[in-house]
Amino acid sequence: MNRRYLSFILFGVCLLPASVLYLSGCQAQTSIEQNSNSDSNLASDLGSEQVIPQAELSGMAAKIKVIAEPITVRIDVSNGNGSGVIIAHQGETYYVLTAEHVVAKEQEYKIVASDGKQYSLDYSKVKKIAGSDLAVAQFTSKQDYQIATLGDYKTRRETMMEELWATNSDPETSKAASEEILRKYDPIHLESRNLVPWLFLFGWQRQQDSSQPRLTAGRDFTDRINFLSEEDKATTAFKDISAFTQAKGYQLSYTNFSQGGMSGGAVLDNQGRVVGIHAAAEGERVGLREIQLGLSLGVPIQIFLDSVEQAGIKPEWLKIETSLPPLITAADETAITESLFEVIPPTANAKATDWINYGNKLWRLFRNEEAIVAFDKAIVLQPDLAQAHYGKAISLKTKEEVAFVDQEQLDRELNEDEFELDRATYEAAIASFKKTTELDPNFEPAWREQAQLLEELGEKSEALAAYDRAITLNPNNDLLHHSRGSLLSQSYRLSEAIEAYNSAISIEPNNPLYYLSRSMAYLMKGNSQQVKTDMERVRAIKPELVDEQSWSDLLESLSNSENLPNRENNLNDLKNSPDYEKLLQNLPDPDNLPDLENIK
């Protein structure tokens, strides 16, 4: 089974590209959805659109809203609002989980419950969860309010990955066992609604002087957040970003639309259980209109559960369920899209930004051909708008990846060593990414996407130049350095590859993939001692990656190969060396461990 198949299936990339994370516009910045708690006036400049009450919902969307409304509160402050979720109560004290930035400053807050009653927030009792954008506030009431059910479980993909890990212990049977596991999960692979599950977001959106509750739907995109460095997660579009320069726990990502005021609201699964707290959204303003081409970001509920005692809450006060949500049907999905996705084509006098937003909605629904047409219309109206070219590029890229889900292609992929790329589509996407960087040379995401696609097409020299430019613009992204190192390793430029891996490790020292990748480069250089050192680090971080038998075999192989010469300039001899082959058998294959990039 080749690298491309595993990567696409295990990451779910067959539906959505890594580039979605950077659809935030040319500055690729994260916008924290707060109002008065920021020193910037950017959050309140939302144009002239008015908040319109949500239309009557049906099907699953209606069921989720019935659950979400009574557990959600509005947190009002002098010139804005956030949202929160009632997660526990003891006596007359209710505990509300929200985003920390919603209650960042000590000032007067009012908590407005679902029945419209207002309660004062005692700021002295606000508990902020260290290392995350989470906080717990309290209010007292004699009323009987519902508390949320929290969902604490491993996803089907995580379960599948655990089964795949177990196959690594026996290299002789690993390939066949992996293929059997993947076949077992084929029903999920072939149903995109379950491979990339639906999530719901509920909160109190605010624009101008009004606020309305709103439910939005989107897809769980968490497995693709691996390319979002800690710096990217923490950077905001506000003037005063000093409070957000550390990681805030934005490990949950989803395609839901969100607006200011919804921060602190619940992210729910298809059973209405809270799996995260909404905190941020990617977006950039063009003129007076907002373009939200990117993801929404949240803090997974597991981070709160790991720190529940910091909030002064006993675990037994919480309602927690650990069962997986049921698979949703095609009828469920149709009801969701009809209720929560209003996809109305722009009018004849529409602006380029209208077509971009329309194309974005189509792209989120995987209607890529239509999205490409919409972005083309935006380009005709405003050819110098980099976002339009970028939107077209990621739609072209997604179009090729979505085709991978086709059963015939899956069957063919299982029996062939290589998947036939739609080169013409990828070349068109590269051309659009290049146009983006021509219009905005500082648009780092487009450089990165160029590099990835060029690498896929075997254009290593041009791909390396694009990675170099991306790193110049975003030097603290560890995964960019790792990707550059991998490309250099493929070209047998081993010393340079090791330098790139060193850079990734210096930024993120706890990702085992980086040490594993570097160990492979050291192995090809004949540095057995460094291979041992790096593999010891891998075992320390993620022991299950190297089982005891493989570890013993590896040590034996290394001890018998201490005198391997530096064969960087004689790689053919190295590849044919029995010592090298024996060592290679006892190392996990980075290409068969794609999910490692999600481990921090």
Please describe what this structure looks like.
- This protein has four domains: 1-16 and 347-476, Tetratricopeptide repeat domain (Serine Threonine Protein Phosphatase 5, Tetratricopeptide repeat); 33-149 and 197-340, Beta Barrel (Thrombin, subunit H), CATH 2.40.10.120; 156-194, no CATH class; 499-600, no CATH class.
- Helices cover 42% and strands 16% of the residues.
- The chain contains 23 helices and 18 strands.
What's a concise summary of this model?
The protein has 600 residues and is of the alpha+beta class.
Terminal residue distance = 26 Å
Low-confidence spans: 1-51, 224-247, 284-289, 405-419, 591-600
Name the CATH class of the largest domain: Mainly Beta
Structurally, the number of domains stands at 4
Which structural category fits the helices and strands? alpha+beta
Mean pLDDT, to the nearest integer, reads 76
Annotated CATH topology of the largest domain? Thrombin, subunit H
Instruction: State the total count of DSSP E strands.
Output: 18
Strand content: 15-25%
Helix content: 40-55%
Q: Number of helical segments?
A: 23
What is the name of the CATH architecture of the largest domain?
Beta Barrel
Query: How large, in whole angstroms, is the Cα Rg?
Result: 25 Å
Shape: globular
The description of the largest β-sheet is: 7 strands, antiparallel
